[in-house]
Design goal:
heterodimer, A: 68 residues, mainly alpha, elongated, B: mainly beta, Porin, 16-stranded antiparallel β-barrel, globular
């Protein structure tokens, strides 16, 4: 876990702050966002949560289900 | 615990098994790339048809319409609501891949879930979201909330995310012994989203969840063998990277997740989506996901006690209250999901899309160790159609 934290910090401090607002046209495209299609993401999280042993990593505050 | 006579009863009130395999309640809110107030209202409807099956027979079918709406009320307040209804029918395993419903009796369950999220924006760089979710099934109830704080650097190139959530669930099986048990999940996330170049954005999240309470599958416990620990500590590290190819007018969305828990399940999951823009508002997105996981330490292979036979693990009599599971989801396997999505943007904010995916889970597709022997291949098909409108 420590190594992962370190990696996260490295990514954060990579500080590629050279990207200016007027250079973000491509980044503003919907397909460049994380989890843009909310219902698609929910369906897939549902499915994998109920068929596999691993879950989590994208957000908090989900509820449980009777699929244990 | 029940005796062998009870355990060998034929399929009875299988309705409840359906609930045991129902799709989960509510999913978490998703980490976002930047902290900017949405400037449009979005209404999205989607319908999912899901079915899974194994060589020895069909399993579950799920029909699931869902609605999502995002509405900026002012330039500081945003509301989101979601709702989903699942109709589930079919058969689920008693133990390993031995199916219920063999007697021909149908299994049915319904699930209804709704969630509300309110987000307040502060100074254009900080967003605080409060979320409440409720989900109800014939034999399961879940109440959850989540608090997520996002804070962006002044240039909006770096966003930090902190989240805390809790879910209080009730399990009340309607088949076999009647009781009500509780389960509580508390989860945390810390993440950073970083603009790496005009064509690259990355995200790293660390996630931890603590589950406490009744984590056993009540139906597998009654019809088969299932007795799980009453706590579970789960860790996940997720890395996502989106790259835009200017020449191709396409985005490659990649993600990797490492997962580990104290039941000794370790998993690696990778996913790639290639979103290719085409003429006239069409987008074609092929995708591929692969996951591999180790088995929980208390999962036992389908090799049964020589005296008692199935579903009893060897040595069961000496330790009848031991920790066991025969759940395929906690076995060791690998799984692939190829898929394709087609979307068409019309004028005035309308978007229509359709997606088809195929899922196959096999023990011999595991990488990094041996898969669990003696289980049937598990397959599923998923189809989505959706329409959304931005105002």
């Amino acid at each position: 876990m420590k190594r992962l934290l370190l990696l996260a910090c490295l990514v954060a401090s990579a500080g590629c702050s050279t990207v200016q607002p007027w250079e973000k046209g491509n980044l503003a495209k919907p397909e460049m966002a994380f989890g843009e299609d909310v219902l698609d993401a929910r369906f897939m999280d549902h499915t994998y949560f109920s068929k596999e042993g691993a879950s989590g990593g994208a957000g908090v505050g989900g509820g449980g289900c009777g699929c244990n | 615990m029940t005796d062998t006579t009870t355990r060998s009863k034929p399929a009875g009130g299988g309705a409840l098994l359906a609930a045991a395999l129902a799709l989960p309640g509510v999913v978490p809110s998703v980490a976002q790339a930047q902290v900017t107030v949405p400037n449009a209202t979005l209404v999205q409807f989607k319908y999912l048809y899901y079915k899974d099956y194994q060589p020895s027979g069909d399993r579950m079918k799920v029909s699931s319409p869902a609605l999502y709406m995002l509405a900026p009320i002012t330039d500081e307040w945003v509301f989101e609501i979601g709702a989903v209804s699942d109709s589930i029918s079919g058969a689920s395993p008693y133990y390993h891949t031995v199916l219920s419903g063999a007697s021909g009796r149908g299994i049915e369950d319904n699930r209804t879930a709704a969630d509300v999220t309110v987000t307040k924006y502060f100074g254009g760089r900080t967003a605080v979201s409060l979320r409440a979710a409720y989900s109800t099934e014939d034999d399961y109830k879940s109440r959850a909330f989540g608090l997520t704080v996002r804070h962006a650097s002044s240039d909006q190139n770096t966003t930090l995310t902190f989240g805390f959530g809790q879910s209080n669930d009730d399990v009340f099986p309607t088949d076999g012994p009647q009781f009500t048990a509780t389960k509580k999940t508390t989860d945390y996330i810390i993440g950073v989203t970083q603009v790496l170049s005009p064509n690259d954005v990355g995200q790293a999240n660390l996630y931890y969840a603590k589950q406490k309470g009744y984590l056993t599958d009540p139906y597998k416990a009654f019809w088969g063998i299932d007795n799980r620990p009453d706590t579970r500590d789960q860790w996940a590290a997720m890395f996502r990277w989106n790259h835009f190819f200017e020449g191709a007018d396409a985005s490659l969305r990649s993600s990797y997740r490492y997962y580990s828990d104290d039941w000794k399940v370790k998993a690696h999951t990778v996913q790639f989506e290639w979103a290719q823009a085409l003429h006239d508002g069409w987008t074609l997105t092929p995708s591929l996901r692969y996951t591999t996981q180790s088995a929980a330490e208390f999962y036992y292979d389908p090799v049964y006690d020589p005296l008692l036979g199935a579903p009893f693990p060897p040595g069961y009599l000496a330790n009848p209250n031991g920790i066991y599971t025969s759940d395929q989801r906690l076995s060791a396997f690998g799984a692939l999901t190829p898929g394709v999505k087609v979307a068409k943007a019309f004028g005035k904010g309308w978007l229509v899309d359709a997606k088809a995916e195929y899922y196959e889970q096999r023990s011999n597709w595991r990488i990094g160790g041996e898969g669990s022997p003696g289980l049937e291949t598990f397959k599923a098909q998923m189809y989505q159609v959706g329409v959304s409108k931005k105002f």
